[in-house]
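Note to self: keep these together.
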Amino acid sequence: MEKFEGDFLKDKYWGNKEFREAAGVSARRTKKRESENVPNTPPERIENYLDRFTEITDREDPEKRERGISAIERLVEKKYIIKAENITDEYIKNVLLGNEAELLGYEREDVKDEQIRKTVLDSLENKIHSPLSTYRVPIELRESLENMIITDQKGRMKQWLDYLTGEEARHAPVALRYWAFAEMLKQGDYDPVSGEYNKRTNATVAIFPELDQQALALVFDEVERRRTGKTSALSTGDDARQAELRDLLQHENFGKLYAFMQEHVRSLKLPTERLVITEGGWKLFSKDSSPSDLTAPLQGYQTKWCIAGEGHATSYLETGDVWIYFSKDVDGQNTIPRACVIDNKEHGITEVRGIIFNEEVKQHLDDYITPVVDAKLKDMEGGEKWADKMDDMKKLRELHFKYLQKEPLNKNDLTFLYEIDRPIQESGYGKDPRIEELKKGRNRQEDIKTMCDCKEEFIATDFIDIKEITQVFCEDTGDKITFFDFREGQNKEKLLPLMELAKRIKETGRGARPDMSFEGGIVNINVPKEKLKDLPTAIKSFEEADNNSPSSIWEELKKMPFATLEQSSLELIVLSYNKDVETRKSSEKIVEDMDKLGLRPATFGELITLGIIKPVFNKKNEYIVALGTKATLDGGVRVSVLVWYGDKRLLDGDGWTIEWGELSRFLCLRK
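Structure:
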């Protein structure tokens, strides 16, 4: 930790009793764990406290890291996320008014206009048959809106937490990351008149501030420069604004500084003005080269890239090369930043970023630059690991052009857009904004009919309704469409065993359902015995199963009992317990339930086999669990799981005694 970091947090928080107590708890843990006393002085206590955070955020074991981050998340949610009882009726009614405005073709902000407000209010009151002022919001509607508000706050908080504890932000000093997160949680809604954030209270319904990586990097850079005796590197082009910045840096109020930097970034040119022009060239900023050479050509543009700040640029160039594609401006010069590729000398290509953004998502590739980036990655060592993502980006580009030209989308297009087979992979932060743009205004039911391409009586919308005449299974939960076509290939052969399973589920009244998104819930595979002759061979085979994505295994799993498979083929069933939450909470209950259905949980070896033969399953959002083999590993009873962790296929371990979540899927076989 740099010296300025300890002094910085001492100035900010040492006068806060809660902070001192937290640092004291951390010191006692260090003494218990390492038999080492931490001196009772602010610098040493703060450094030890920050070490505890980096110990969590920088853990190499993904499972342990995720548990640590989740623990932080739960603490933050308990203290800072609004409680339902603090959401007022007045706010709920304003939400209803805003919703009505959008239905009438206005923006939510338009209701500030007196005439528009009257039009919208008349329309709403006509629908609810009551004056809005005396209207009693139905309990179900209120709960729905409360959940929406709470979910939005949690989602924005998690964006900040994921970023500040993630790989990209590790280039910033940990003290500044801690400060940014702690202060972000205190910011309420933004006041465009004052240019500042209002103070957050326990009744603030507004979501937390937008995460703008470029603005945040500039805050970090300027604060660090001031604290280490360096002059400001930011030029606003305006004497009054420059004086305002100097004053803000003197006081180091995060909310005010961040709002200032956001306004500065918004004032910069948007590179999107000449998207269609891709003529230009790649420029290499090589490892250990000058950070100012990297930041200088980005200063006039709103890219949302953190490397626009010299501090982040320095850290990136210490570990690898940075490639940026500049397209031509109106003068024919290569000055407009369009895409960025980070080539880390130890880890290979770690980031591919574009310039498309909105308030929720950042740094996605635009339609026009995608082929340019694809060609570059194909020429770079390790670029093949990005092939799947770039294939998805090219397909999304194709659909977006169809949308812009008002061309219809066919069955294959819709299957991709609604992510029927697997999630769309993207290169930026958050879901690519084109996905929602393409879906917006579409008739979802008509799209489902296009995908099904058969009469309604041949469609089953619930698994237990599958029968001999069923041609298509299609379940729409609103969040997700699960689709399986029995007419394709050998899918028809799965109809009878699925009907038998449905019959047993009906007879026993169980809530289990096969997840039909996994090839109809029944997966038939041939066992590659040469790849499974022992555990080291099986692990190597798993890691080599997919050339397009990195794969790894939790080291502790090398101690998990492993038995070679005698069968030449396997019929695996992927079960979901989302219709039976009580059973899903307990591994023992799940195994008991499987037994009543004539099933048994899959073993460790059977899970690895699935990972080898069907690596694409490892790239879905779902968590595939094998409860048939358990062992005491890393101080607890564990079972093996397949999970897609960021951009990596992972063979991991999880606790036998945990409550399984809604993304958990359980692998099993007939007895």
